[in-house]
Amino acid sequence: MEFKFPDLGEGLVEGEVIKWHVKEGDFVKEGDPLVDVMTEKATVTLPAPTTGRVVKILVREGEVVKVGQTLCVIEPAEGPAAGPQTEAPARPREVAAMPAARRLAKELGIDLSKVKGTGPGGVITVEDVKRYAEETAKATAPAPAPKAVEKAEEAEVVPVRGIRRAVAEKMSKAKRLIPHAYHLEEVDFTELIKLRERVKAEAEKRGIRLTLLPFIAKAVAMALREYPMLNSEYDEEKNAIVVKKEVNLGIGVDTEQGLVVVVVKNADKKGLLEMAKEINELAQKAREGKLELQDVRGSTFTISNIGAVGGLGGLSILNYPEAGILAVGQARKKPWAVGDRIEIRDIALLAVSFDHRVVDGAYVARFMNRVKELLENPWLLLL
Fold first, then answer.
1. Tell me, what's the pLDDT at 151?
2. What is 241-296 written as a DSSP string?
């Protein structure tokens, strides 16, 4: 049977094959891990759909596969599979080649089906593989560089794969299709930092690491309830704005593989400690590469906490197809007017990027005024 890349929902149309857990000739049971595929949402492990032997792998690691495209061919076993004694007999290989020739071809990355065999009965020999490799190298050899640049140092070419490829494609799509506009606001985090310090010990007793991010997420979720047009997306086909009923916050997580956006569902209905616990758990799963599809799907507004790494702030690209994203800069001590006095306060730059088809600047300014009010008077978050 042909095992095809399934439709995983969320509008996903393709994925990149990251890792095969089997090789041709292996026997698998239904439900065994078969292949890891990276989509723009997460890395998903696809299980074997049936019990049998993998006779052909059609998509290599690093290649992009479309929904409905065949990943591999599995020869179903006859009867129940309880162990080696019930394994289906191996299918004869389609290409006849000597073992040493197979090993060499594998090392050189050569497809044996393209090599002409000169051995008995057309069997491919080691010499056939070497000859094919030499001919291919000559045919694909680049033209010699002009003498003027012969001594120039070669640049490193880094393949764009996995999460980096998914991010690149999604960001390009967002910037290409959405007319971005921006609103910046400085927010006094002084009282917020004091409150966090007062409740941090209580959170630690419950095994929760409490940062400023859950407070910011709570403030944004509350403000989105009051300004729902930012909790929406623009439907190009229907030429309509789709306002979401649930407030599902996307949280940007910096991992070794790249940026991953995890999703806190129904964030407006969660308390601070519950919010903190869920963000911590999702971030840990992201860094360990253990996210499931439900952990990264369904976000309606995203927060990018740039300040956790450092920097005054930035203007983020929208997380397509959402209408808004908030970039939070690092809180820094600076002179600040408090009434008629000048005090040293902890000030952070917050920047909202928004879809100008959905909302105008005045609407976003009011939204940010509410976020600012909640963060500068953080006890309001506890009501």
1. 56
2. EEE-SS--EEEEEEETTEEEEEEETTGGG--HHHHHHHHHHHHHHHHHT---GGGT
Tell me the CA distances in angstroms from 151 to 58, 141, 145, 154, 155, one per residue in order: 41, 19, 10, 9, 12
Q: By C-alpha distance, which of 59, 263, 46, 43 is closest to 163? A: 43
> Contact at 8 Å (CB) between 175 and 317?
yes
pLDDT in tens, 275-323: 999 999 999 999 888 888 889 889 999 999 988 888 888 999 999 999 9
pLDDT greater at residue 273 or residue 142: 273
User: CA dist 209 to 195, 197, 203, 274, 282, Å?
Assistant: 14, 12, 7, 11, 13
Domain 179-382 matching CATH 3.30.559.10: the answer reads yes
**What's the CA gap between 383 and 379, in Å, rounded?**
7
* 21 tagged catalytic: no
Is the pLDDT at 363 greater than 90? The verdict is yes
Rounded CA-CA distance 17/58 in Å is 11
Token pair for 114: 């393209």
Report DSSP state, residue 78.
S
Q: How far is Cα 375 from Cα 37, in angstroms, rounded to an integer?
A: 40
Q: Is it the case that residue 267 has pLDDT exceeding 90?
A: yes
Among 195, 159, 316, CA closest to 250 = 316
Q: Is the pTM of this model over 0.70?
A: no
- Calpha distance 21→55 (Å, rounded): 14
Contact between 79 and 50 (Cβ < 8 Å): no
| Torsion angle (degrees, nearest 10) of CA 169, 171, 175, 180 | 160
- The predicted pLDDT at position 6 comes to 85
Pair of tokens at residue 355: 């879809």
* CATH of the domain spanning 2-118: 2.40.50.100
Q: Could you state, in order of their start, the residue ranges of all structural domains in the chain? A: 2-118, 179-382
Q: Which of 21, 180, 183, 356 is catalytic?
A: 356
